[in-house]
Design goal:
Blueprint (H helix, E strand, L loop, with lengths): L2 H6 L3 E3 L2 E3 L1 E5 L3 H12 L3 E5 L3 H8 L4 E2 L3 H4 L5 E4 L4 H8 L5 H4 L5 E4 L5 H13 L3 E4 L2 E2 L1 H7 L2 E6 L2 H11 L3 E8 L3 H29 L4 H8 L7 H4 L23 H18 L4 H15 L10 H7 L1
Parallel strand pairs: 3-4, 3-6, 4-5, 6-7, 7-8, 10-11
Antiparallel strand pairs: 1-2, 9-10
Helix pairs in contact: 2-3, 2-8, 10-13, 10-14, 10-15, 13-14
Bound molecules: nicotinamide-adenine-dinucleotide.
Nicotinamide-adenine-dinucleotide binds next to helix 2, helix 5 and helix 8.
Length: 313
């Protein structure tokens, strides 16, 4: 029996198509939309979250409510987790009450949370020792991508586990890349977000300088978006109101991608850089600037709102 057949053996048929029975743990801002897309694809989904309101949203779309994380992992072929931090992943997966003890041997685990590489590798090791398949599959694309089913997945793990995860991930995303062994999905994610944090600060500083030099926001945008300074932070997520209507700058800097989440990811990249001996001086400076922003006016704001802190300096 290959890995994919193993995952689907807990499943059921819709016409000739075999669907999976899936447990989904952590149905917050991101996980909610992802679980609903699995339902829309025809899979049977049992959800668990500490927030009853978050569970209710999925149940209204056809999910079943599980009584606990271990209940969500019982008698399913696949378990997806979308949790805030490494400590949450550790508590849900490991220990006597953990999902790795509740699931049937051969269950496929897909952890989509953005967490540290060390926890990911530790959990993967324990899962494999219990005869489970596991991938780390952090995402890029935000709440919009989670709702639309257009996420990018960076997937670390053994080839067989990746192949088994692929049809499940295709119901939630459009760009799915196998990055290598366990933890490399997280590595790709934190390196990407370190670039994002640095580039957002660069774009914000340039807009503040442009303001002081008497250059209009729109003129600056029109030039730079087609010149060598162009990047995603400018063209898709412009930190000043006007040029990109969908960016949080036009909505009072309501997240979006929160400054707190950016700070979390910059801590992850900095911890990894320190642990593995990489020089990331701009990453460190970006982390310190987001620490100041989250500790002050940016506690509840989108990460692009850091332009307001820079302007006041
Ligand atoms: P969120 O806080 O909205 O959702 C997390 C959910 O997990 C919450 O509903 C919470 O109640 C639940 N939870 C926490 N501990 C639990 C436990 N022990 N058992 C069951 N449920 C538990 O966060 P989010 O924005 O959905 O982010 C989730 C992950 O996705 C994070 O790692 C984040 O870094 C990552 N991410 C977020 C975005 C974004 O734009 N929000 C983008 C990419 C990646």
């Amino acid at each position: 029996m290959n890995a994919l057949t193993q995952v689907l053996c807990q499943g059921f048929y819709i016409g000739k198509k075999k669907m999976a029975k899936i447990g989904f743990i952590g149905v917050g801002n991101m996980g909610g939309g992802m679980a609903i897309n699995l339902l829309k694809a025809g899979h049977a989904v049992k959800v668990f979250d500490l927030s009853e309101a978050a569970v209710a949203v999925c149940v209204a779309e056809g999910a079943t409510a599980a009584a606990s994380a271990s209940d969500a992992a019982t008698d399913v072929g696949v378990v997806v987790t979308m949790l805030p931090k490494g400590k949450h992943v550790r508590s849900v997966y490991l220990g006597d009450e953990g999902v790795l003890n509740a699931a049937n041997e051969g269950t496929l685990f897909i952890d989509c949370s953005t967490i540290d590489v060390a926890t990911t590798r530790e959990v993967a090791k324990v899962a494999q020792s219990k005869g489970m398949m596991i991938v780390d599959a952090p995402v890029s694309g935000g709440v919009g991508g989670a709702n639309a089913g257009t996420l990018t997945f960076m997937v670390g793990g053994l080839k067989g586990a990746f192949e088994a995860a692929l049809p499940i991930l295709q119901a939630m995303g459009t760009n799915i890349v196998h990055t290598g062994g366990a933890g490399t999905g997280q590595a790709a994610k934190i390196c990407n977000n370190m670039i994002l944090g640095i580039s957002m600060i660069g774009v914000c500083e340039a807009f503040v300088l442009a303001e002081k030099l008497g250059l209009e926001h729109q003129t600056m945008f029109d030039i730079v978006s087609t010149a060598s300074g162009q990047c995603w932070s400018l063209t898709s997520y412009c930190p000043v109101p006007g040029p990109v209507p969908a960016s949080p700058a036009n909505n009072g800097y309501k997240p979006g991608f929160s400054a707190q989440n950016m700070l979390k990811d910059l801590h992850l990249s900095q911890d990894a850089a320190d642990g593995f001996g990489a020089s990331t001086e701009l990453g460190k400076a970006a982390m310190e600037m987001y620490e100041a922003y989250v500790g002050g006016e940016g506690e509840e704001a989108d990460f692009s709102g850091i332009v307001n802190m820079i302007r006041k300096k």
